[in-house]
Write a structure and sequence with these properties.
Its EC number is 2.1.1.319. This protein is of the alpha/beta class. Helices cover about 25% and strands about 30% of the residues.
C-alpha cells in the first residue's frame, strides 16, 4: 500500500474556515498589536489623515480586535463599520464598549463579501498584509470592498504596496551544512557524506519566515513589483511579477534570496511608509527567505539578475507561491519554485 499522500485541493469554504480559525486565539492578536512598528505606523497614518477622516464614514476590513477602528474614531470618524469574520469580533465588541465608542463603531460579524452595509463609505482602512505581502490573500477582500462600498474619490489606508528582493548569505545554513564535516574530528566517525542530504533538507522549497540581519544582505535590494490599491484588480493579483537586478557588495556565498515589502499611507505632509526591510526595525512579518539549491560564490560587483513571480497555490488559494528565475554572475540561469507549507496536510475530510 502506498504511503504517498496526494495533496488535496481544499474547497474555498474549508480554506476560509481554516484561515479564519487561525485568528480565534489571543496569541496572533497579541503578536500583531505588540508589533510597535505595525500598530504605531497605522495609528500615526490614521491620525495624520484626520482631515480626510473627520465626520466621514469608514470601513475597517478584517477589523480583528477593532484597534484600527478606534484609531479612526480618535481621528474624528463619524461612523466606522468594523467587519470581522472570525469570533474575535466578540472581543472587539467588548473593546469598543470599554472605550465608550458604541455610538461610532458598529462591529459586523462576517466576511466583507457577504455583509451588507447600510451606506457607502469615504475611507477604507485595513491591515491585510501577510508574509511576503500576499500570503493569506486578504488583499482580495480589500479590493472587493473598494469596488462595492468606496465612494468615488474616497481614500484607502494604505494605498500602495511594493515588493523587494535581495541576495543574502545565511550563516546558520552554512554552519549547519559544514557541521557534517566536523563530526569526524569530534567523534572519529566520518559523516561528510551527509552533506548532500543535509543540503536537500535545509535548502528546500519552503518559504521560510525569518529575521534577516543587515550583515547578511549582499546587495542593495531591488524593487520588483508595485501595487496601487486604487487601481489593481483581483485578476492582476493572480500573478504579481517583475524583474530585478542587484550587484553584490563583496565576496560571499549567496545561499538564499530574501523578499520583503513596504506599504505606503498617503498623508497631507508626506507619505508614511511601513517597511519590513531587514534594514529597518523588525516587524512580526520578518522577511521571506528563499533558499537556493546550492550556494554560489560572488565577489564585489557580481551581477545578480532575474524575475520573480508570485501567485496563489493550487492547493489553497490563500497560500502564496513564489517562482524565481535567476542568474548569478556567469552561472547559467536557474529556476526554483517556493511555497509556504499549506493547510491541506492538516485538513480533515
Amino acid at each position: 500500500m502506498s504511503h504517498v499522500v496526494k495533496k488535496r485541493k481544499l474547497d474555498k469554504t474549508r480554506q476560509d474556515r481554516l484561515y479564519f480559525d487561525s485568528y480565534t486565539d489571543v496569541t496572533i492578536h497579541e503578536e500583531m498589536i505588540a508589533d510597535h512598528v505595525r500598530t504605531n505606523t497605522y495609528r500615526m497614518a490614521i491620525l495624520r489623515n484626520s482631515e480626510s477622516i473627520r465626520g466621514k464614514v469608514v470601513l475597517d476590513v478584517g477589523a480583528g480586535t477593532g484597534v484600527l477602528s478606534i484609531f479612526c474614531v480618535q481621528a474624528g470618524a463619524k461612523k466606522v463599520y468594523a467587519v470581522e469574520a472570525c469570533s474575535i469580533a466578540e472581543q472587539a465588541v467588548k473593546i469598543v464598549k470599554q472605550n465608550n465608542m458604541e455610538d461610532n463603531i458598529e462591529v459586523i460579524r462576517g466576511t466583507v463579501e457577504t455583509v451588507d452595509l447600510p451606506e457607502q463609505v469615504e475611507v477604507i482602512v485595513s491591515e491585510w498584509m501577510g508574509y511576503a505581502l500576499l500570503h493569506e490573500s486578504m488583499l482580495n477582500s480589500v479590493l472587493y470592498a473598494r469596488d462595492k462600498w468606496l465612494k468615488p474619490g474616497g481614500i484607502i489606508l494604505p494605498n500602495k504596496a511594493e515588493l523587494y528582493i535581495a541576495p543574502i548569505s545565511d550563516p546558520v545554513v552554512e554552519d549547519r551544512l559544514h557541521f557534517w564535516y566536523t563530526v569526524k574530528d569530534q567523534y572519529g566517525v566520518d559523516m561528510s557524506c551527509m552533506s548532500d542530504f543535509a543540503t536537500r533538507c535545509i535548502m528546500n522549497s519552503d518559504i521560510t519566515v525569518n529575521s534577516v540581519t543587515v550583515e547578511d544582505v549582499l546587495s542593495h535590494p531591488a524593487r520588483f513589483a508595485e501595487l496601487d490599491l486604487h487601481s489593481v484588480t483581483v485578476e492582476e493579483l493572480r500573478s504579481v511579477k517583475g524583474k530585478f537586478r542587484c550587484e553584490s557588495f563583496g565576496s560571499a556565498a549567496v545561499n538564499a534570496f530574501c523578499v520583503y515589502f513596504t506599504v505606503t499611507f498617503p498623508c497631507p505632509d508626506k507619505p508614511l511608509v511601513l517597511s519590513t526591510s531587514p534594514f529597518n526595525p523588525e516587524t512580526h512579518w520578518k522577511q521571506a527567505v528563499l533558499y537556493l539549491d546550492a550556494p554560489v560564490n560572488v565577489v564585489q560587483d557580481t551581477v545578480v539578475t532575474g524575475e520573480v513571480s508570485m501567485y496563489p497555490s493550487e492547493e489553497s488559494a490563500r497560500h502564496i507561491c513564489i517562482h524565481a528565475d535567476y542568474t548569478i554572475g556567469e552561472q547559467k540561469r536557474q529556476s526554483k519554485t517556493f511555497s509556504i507549507p499549506d493547510w491541506s496536510s492538516e485538513a480533515q475530510p
